[in-house]
């Protein structure tokens, strides 16, 4: 008779993710039981408290790195700690933007323009399901970069994606556009998940295992069918490239960024990128590192096309959210240079870039939520003319975030781009560095164009105004601004911390 062996889960290492999942479940109970008058403040308190508690627990286990948990399916190493910390910090700022319920429909289940929707607006009914959905998404994001096998990676992919599909359709205004964005995100996301599963099955056929370490051992030993390996790498890459919005898997990005509620767009654009690139760095730096001749040439081409496409198409955009969407596509290309570098400098630079870009993105979209007219948010760039004369403080903050995206010195973006291009240059990828610098110059044009529009153009008669932000929105934008400038002026402490901490279990 075989004896039962209890699985060793290492709950202390899993605690940050378990805390977030527990907070999400508590949020569901609150949504179902508390009255609508106290529900918003209760949900906000639970969400922020959960994220802060998870961050504290993550800090407690920072010295227990280079370990595995949940029977080897989760890897807790230095890089994992850094990426999970970035996700939690970005999520805290994103939640503060989400706290402004003005952006969300009162009853998401009601059809746009229906009598049910009108009744909910008249009664002042306001559901707050966005908070537990946010926590579920964060739980998936925390699991994504630490997954140590393909099954766990797929579970994390779905866990972070499904809540985002719903959150994209919760916009209070332009409901049809919001629901269209959610549907498009869902359908294209389903296809990308299918490609990921297809690739995972081929990698299993190649190596006989789903663990990243087992796949790496098979690659080193050359014991499998190389055709299976190539197909597996290709299709798994499609699933990951979709999440990071790389060309040609970017089609969902502009529509979803535009249609989703702006706080959700901020959270999605920043936190999802950290999680997706974290997973991408782990799988390419560990499982596929010894097969780089098979995937690096094609990934280099994708990075170059992504940088150029995002930068050029952004020039033609007249909607600020679509402009930032194509900007995010270009940044995905910049971040892919860190994956291609395949060295310690590339890993360190990618982690710094992800954090700096994520913080600046939340701040930029935070400013977008404040620019409104009588009908709500105004994202038409033509109506942003003269914003610097009407609201100089808000325009200055937005200009700072744009300069960070452009990689101008004394901002976090400059340090991020310099670090990641230096890593790529050290690895011998000079072509991608040259294209990256040229793309940055192109991108600087449309960023500066917006700054000129705000500060050096006369206001239009149907112009906009900047509403007085809530306390939480004000804190979010100011914190993002301070971090963006601080990392541009004093980046050394964070860079040294990343250099001494970032590593993968192999």
How would you explain this protein's 3D organization?
- The chain has 506 residues and is mainly alpha-helical.
- The chain has one domain (11-109, 127-501).
- The protein is 72% helix and 3% strand.
- It is globular.
- The model has no long low-confidence stretch (mean pLDDT 87).
Determine Rg (CA atoms, Å): 22 Å
User: Which class do the helix and strand fractions yield?
Assistant: mainly alpha
The major beta sheet can be summarized as: 3 strands, antiparallel
Mean pLDDT: 87
Beta-strand percentage? under 5%
Number of separate strands: 5
Form type:
globular
Q: What's the end-to-end separation, in Å?
A: 36 Å
Order of helices and strands: HHEEHHHHHHHHHHHHEEHHHHEHH
| Strand neighbour order, sheet with most strands | 4-3-5
Percentage of residues in helical conformation: over 70%
Summarize the structure.
The protein contains 20 helices and five strands.
SSE diagram, text form:
Elements: H1 11-33, H2 39-60, E1 67-69, E2 74-76, H3 78-98, H4 115-123, H5 130-143, H6 150-167, H7 175-207, H8 212-221, H9 226-244, H10 252-259, H11 262-287, H12 292-315, H13 320-341, H14 344-368, E3 371-373, E4 376-377, H15 387-390, H16 392-406, H17 412-426, H18 430-455, E5 465-466, H19 471-489, H20 492-501
Antiparallel strand pairs: 1-2, 3-4, 3-5
Helix pairs in contact: 1-2, 1-5, 2-3, 2-5, 3-5, 3-11, 3-14, 3-19, 5-6, 5-11, 6-7, 6-11, 7-8, 7-9, 7-10, 9-11, 10-13, 11-13, 11-14, 12-13, 12-18, 13-14, 13-17, 13-18, 14-16, 14-17, 14-19, 14-20, 16-18, 16-19, 17-18, 17-19
Keywords:
3-stranded antiparallel β-sheet, single chain, mainly alpha, 506 residues
């Amino acid at each position: 008779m075989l004896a039962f062996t209890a699985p060793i889960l290492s709950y202390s290492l899993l605690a940050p993710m378990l805390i977030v999942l527990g907070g999400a479940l508590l949020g569901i109970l609150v949504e179902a039981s508390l009255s609508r008058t106290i529900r918003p403040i209760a949900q906000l308190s639970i969400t922020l408290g959960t994220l802060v508690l998870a961050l504290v627990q993550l800090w407690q286990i920072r010295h227990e790195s280079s370990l595995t948990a949940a029977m080897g399916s989760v890897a807790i190493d230095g890089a994992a700690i850094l990426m999970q910390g970035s996700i939690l910090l970005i999520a805290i700022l994103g939640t503060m933007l989400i706290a402004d319920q003005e952006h969300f429909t009162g009853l998401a289940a009601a059809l746009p323009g229906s009598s049910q929707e009108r009744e909910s607006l008249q009664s002042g009914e306001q559901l707050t399901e966005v908070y537990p959905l946010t926590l579920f998404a964060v739980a998936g994001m925390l699991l994504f970069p630490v997954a140590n096998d393909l099954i766990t990676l797929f579970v994390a992919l779905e866990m972070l994606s499904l809540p985002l599909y719903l959150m994209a359709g919760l916009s209070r205004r332009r409901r049809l556009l919001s629901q269209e964005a959610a549907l498009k995100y869902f359908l294209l996301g389903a296809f990308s998940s299918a490609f990921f599963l297809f690739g995972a099955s081929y990698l299993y056929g190649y190596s006989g295992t789903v663990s990243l370490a087992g796949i790496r051992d098979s690659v080193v030993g050359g014991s499998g069918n190389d055709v299976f390996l190539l197909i597996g790498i290709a299709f798994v890459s499609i699933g990951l490239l979709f999440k990071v919005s790389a060309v040609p898997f970017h089609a969902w990005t502009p529509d979803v960024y535009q249609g989703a509620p702006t706080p959700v767009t901020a959270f999605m654009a920043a936190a999802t990128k950290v999680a997706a690139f974290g997973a991408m760095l782990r799988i390419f730096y560990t499982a596929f590192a010894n097969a780089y001749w098979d995937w690096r040439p094609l990934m280099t081409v994708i990075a170059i096309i992504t940088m150029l496409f995002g930068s050029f198409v952004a020039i033609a955009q007249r909607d600020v959210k679509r402009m930032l969407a194509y900007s995010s596509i270009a940044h995905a290309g910049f971040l892919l240079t860190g994956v291609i570098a395949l060295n310690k400098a590339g890993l360190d630079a990618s982690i710094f870039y992800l954090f700096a870009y994520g913080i600046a993105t939340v701040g930029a979209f935070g400013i977008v939520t404040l620019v409104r007219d009588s009908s709500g948010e105004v994202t038409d760039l033509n109506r942003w003319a003269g914003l610097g004369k009407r609201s100089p403080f808000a325009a200055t903050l937005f200009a700072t975030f744009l300069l960070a995206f452009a990689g101008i010195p004394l901002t976090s973006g400059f340090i991020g781009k310099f670090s990641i291009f230096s890593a790529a240059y050290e690895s011998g990828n000079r072509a991608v560095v040259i294209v990256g610098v040229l793309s940055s110059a192109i991108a600087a044009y449309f960023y500066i164009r917006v700054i000129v529009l705000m500060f050096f153009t006369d206001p239009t008669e149907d112009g906009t105004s900047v509403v007085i932000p809530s306390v939480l929105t004000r804190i979010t934008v100011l914190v993002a601004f301070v971090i963006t400038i601080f990392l541009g002026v004093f980046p050394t402490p964070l860079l040294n911390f990343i250099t001494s901490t970032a590593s993968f279990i192999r």
